[in-house]
């Protein structure tokens, strides 16, 4: 699995791993498979949407549309997924799911069993650093 860090603090990048912060799917991990920005018919405001997939319920061909304010960006971008989407190749759902699950398991921090163990976890786990996914400035 090849990972790289996102390039800037702007919108979410295709292939970037995000975590849902709002809605019935709060806490679920997704991969960004598309980004769109449109102007409302009255011309007042822009509406941004990020299309995400998890390989199970939401696939690359049928992604879930999310408000970028409801997502937490991680610093991980799945290179293999990004290349497949940008080259318009078919993404295998099993491989997609395996990459996302593997990353999630590798970076999960379990809750300590007792308060005494609480001080031994988390200090060196930089992989869990997340940044809010901001919408582009108006």
Describe the 3D structure.
Strands 1, 2, 3, 4, 5, 6 and 7 form a seven-stranded antiparallel beta sheet that branches. This protein has helices at about 80-85, 95-105; strands at about 5, 15-20, 30-40, 45-55, 65, 70-80, 130. The protein is globular. The relative contact order is 0.24. The model is unreliable at about 110-138 (pLDDT under 50). The chain is an alpha+beta fold and about 140 residues long. About 15% of the residues lie in helices and about 30% in strands. It is built from two helices and seven strands, in the order ββββββααβ. The protein has one domain (about 5-105, about 125-130): Roll (SH3 type barrels), CATH 2.30.30.
Q: Please, how many domains?
A: 1
Percent of sequence in beta strands:
25-35%
CATH fold type: SH3 type barrels
Order of helices and strands: EEEEEEHHE
Query: Globular, elongated, flat, extended or rod-shaped: what is the shape?
Result: globular
**Count the strands?**
7
CATH architecture identity = Roll
Backbone CA Rg = 16 Å
Q: Report the total helices.
A: 2
Write the topology of this structure:
Layout: E1 3-4, E2 16-20, E3 29-39, E4 46-53, E5 64-66, E6 71-78, H1 79-86, H2 93-107, E7 130-132
Antiparallel strand pairs: 1-6, 2-3, 2-6, 3-4, 4-5, 6-7
Question: Could you give a short description of this structure?
Answer:
This protein is of the alpha+beta class. The protein contains 2 helices and 7 strands.
Summary keywords:
138 residues, alpha+beta, SH3 type barrels, 2 helices, 17% helix, globular, disordered C terminus
């Amino acid at each position: 699995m090849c990972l790289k860090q996102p390039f800037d603090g702007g919108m979410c990048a295709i292939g970037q791993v995000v975590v849902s912060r709002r809605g019935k799917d709060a806490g679920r991990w997704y991969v960004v498979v598309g980004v769109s920005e449109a102007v409302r018919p009255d011309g007042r405001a822009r509406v941004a949407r990020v299309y995400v997939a998890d390989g199970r319920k939401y696939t690359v061909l049928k992604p879930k549309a999310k408000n970028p304010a409801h997502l937490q960006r991680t610093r991980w971008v799945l290179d293999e997924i990004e290349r497949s989407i940008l080259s318009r190749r078919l993404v295998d759902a099993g491989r997609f799911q395996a990459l996302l699950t593997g990353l999630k398991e590798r970076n999960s921090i379990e809750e300590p069993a007792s308060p005494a163990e609480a001080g031994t976890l988390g200090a060196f786990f930089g992989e869990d650093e997340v940044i809010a996914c901001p919408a582009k400035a108006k």
